[in-house]
């Protein structure tokens, strides 16, 4: 029997582009599905494994024209189609833009449908640039309110945050940055954020996060979460990354560290990754959080990342260790014919030092 998949769903034009960027960043290996009312962008999303058009009778594949209520009705009319794309999904990582249109209108229906099918969701929403004007910001705020209580974990981002260079501790955008460069940086940051989750669960790794443990982590952190990313290369890269995570006002941990109740830290690098670098990053994150905060660490290496050190952190504002693993994820660990065994919220198939956040002694 095939193991349930961790899939990425991009909803609407912006969501589809970001899902495509994430899939492209790992050579198309990430199962990414674009969902939109506009079929004209299909050819531009070559890295996505599937393109699903909704509301065909209403829009004939030409898009919602920025009308979120119409897009919402289109999603309701296409519930059977959306239910089909969720089949075999263990965790739905979802991304959508909330300016206007299909992302804002269809996302609530998609999250409700996933919940009804017992598919946990990790939903990233992206608000417009402030410079886009008050009307689009008001539309994004209204769309955000429609998501209250929906989905398993919700991460709120904005384009103003995503254009911040991931290697900058200040988060400031150089004044000479062109619009094209800024948008490329936003896609790169979002693509890394979305693909890193898949890398940690699906890439052969020193500390691989099993899909069941990833799902359990999302269930334990149900509610709102914050996302932080950092990247560095060259000598002393581990200290550079640690400083970015600590100091950066956007996409860092400084602003929300005191409110964190649980965290998932992912380290992605080439095969030149050193044990001391893992230890430094782990200490930097743990040192910012309230004492006793559970931190789950995963480390994945990829030859395509040689020379680079990338760190992502999902910081959860809520944490419930008693959340269980869904039935779809059972019997998928390394012991054939057995089940994942959560005891007091812990997966006993993981090494003790990982589960209990113990530090490694190094010579």
- What share of the residues does DSSP label as strand, in percent? 15-25%
Sequence of strands across the biggest β-sheet: 3-2-1-4-5-6-7-10-8-9
Distance between the termini: 44 Å
Runs in which pLDDT lies below 50 for 5 or more consecutive residues are 329-346, 351-356, 358-363
- In sequence order, what are the helices and strands, one letter per element? EHEEHHHEHEHEHHHEHEHEEEEH
For the sheet with most strands, the description reads: 10 strands, mixed
Q: In percent, how helical is the residue content?
A: 25-40%
Q: Structural class per helix/strand content?
A: alpha/beta
- Given the structure, what is the number of helices? 12
What do the pLDDT scores average to? 81
Q: Based on DSSP secondary structure assignment, what is the total number of beta strands?
A: 12
Shape: globular
Backbone CA Rg: 20 Å
Q: Can you tell me about this structure?
A:
The protein has 363 residues and is an alpha/beta fold. The chain is built from twelve helices and twelve strands. Strands 3-2-1-4-5-6-7-10-8-9 form a ten-stranded mixed sheet, sandwiched between helices. A two-stranded antiparallel sheet has the order 11-12. Helix 5 links the parallel strand 4 and strand 5.
